[in-house]
Design goal:
Elements lengths: L16 H6 L6 H15 L1 E4 L2 E3 L3 E6 L1 H8 L3 H17 L8 E7 L8 E6 L4 E10 L2 E4 L3 E6 L6 E2 L10 E5 L4 E5 L6 E3 L2 E3 L1 E4 L4 E4 L2 E12 L12 E3 L10
Parallel strand pairs: 3-4, 8-9
Antiparallel strand pairs: 1-2, 3-5, 4-17, 6-7, 6-16, 8-10, 10-11, 11-14, 12-13, 12-15, 15-16
Pfam families: FHA (PF00498), FhaA_N (PF12401)
Keywords: Phosphoprotein
Protein name: FHA domain-containing protein
């Protein structure tokens, strides 16, 4: 279950004064999501009849106390935010010029419960990086075959008694991925169903024993346009394949 799954989806309430009065414990992740959605909708620019361009680099500013709380959630929060931004853009048929980038920043000028988003559009080449997310830890997938299992010889080692030493493998050819069970004792599941071999789509969930493994494809914005290089602290994440024509 994602970090934001416990919150009402599509929440679009105000994120400044009204929110600060309602949530005395400080900023909540769902409020950041709502602010990012509004920023996208506000900055959407019609380039042509079939092309509406939106920002792809976001700086999310909040009070130092809120920033410490959000930073404590780790990189999984950025993954969740990026995924929801991408899905919102896809639902509105918006397009990006480069990889999505979200940076959380502490702003001493803001009080708890207040969030502000700055954004810009930076065009750049995209480097696709497939990873397996196990409990918030990302394991890069090797080109060819990446073995998952309990044994020390596995590329991704699981501390799970329900996993065989060489339980399953993920095959990656540079553009597509497949998962294949390696004759394990307890079997492998893909999105809740038993599987022997199947295509892996982004955000698919592989279950081995009691371990939940999420397959992600991270789109990193490489070689941005001159003057458009993002801050080194910025983290870049999944795009899910929604790119404008000619990008």
């Amino acid at each position: 279950m994602g970090l934001l799954d416990n919150f009402e989806k599509g929440l679009e309430r105000a994120v400044n004064g009204a929110f600060a009065k309602t949530f005395r414990s400080g900023l909540q992740p769902v409020e950041i999501t709502a602010a990012l959605k509004r920023e996208i909708d506000t900055k959407a620019a019609v380039v042509s009849r079939d092309r509406v361009l939106v920002p792809n680099m976001f700086s999310v500013r909040m009070s130092p106390a809120d920033h410490d709380r959000m930073a404590g959630l780790g990189p999984a929060l950025i993954d969740e935010l990026t995924d929801l931004v991408q899905k919102h853009a896809a639902s509105q048929r918006f397009q990006f010029a480069g990889g999505i980038s979200i940076a959380l920043q502490a702003d001493p000028g803001l009080t708890e419960g207040i969030v502000q988003v700055d954004s810009r559009n930076v065009k750049g080449q995209v480097a696709w990086t497939p990873v397996l997310d196990v409990g918030g830890t990302r394991h890069p997938i090797l080109k060819g075959h990446t073995v998952i299992g309990r044994g020390s010889e596995a590329d991704v080692t699981l501390d799970d008694s329900g996993a065989s030493r060489r339980h399953a493998e993920v095959q990656w050819d540079g553009t597509r991925a497949r998962v294949r069970d390696l004759g394990s004792t307890n079997g492998t599941q893909l999105n809740g169903a038993p599987v022997k071999e199947a295509v892996l789509e982004p955000d698919s969930v592989i279950t081995i024993g009691s371990t939940r493994i999420v397959f992600r494809v991270l789109a990193q914005a490489s070689a941005p346009a001159p003057g458009g290089r993002p801050d080194p602290a910025t983290q870049r994440h999944d795009m899910g394949g929604f790119w404008g024509p000619g990008e």
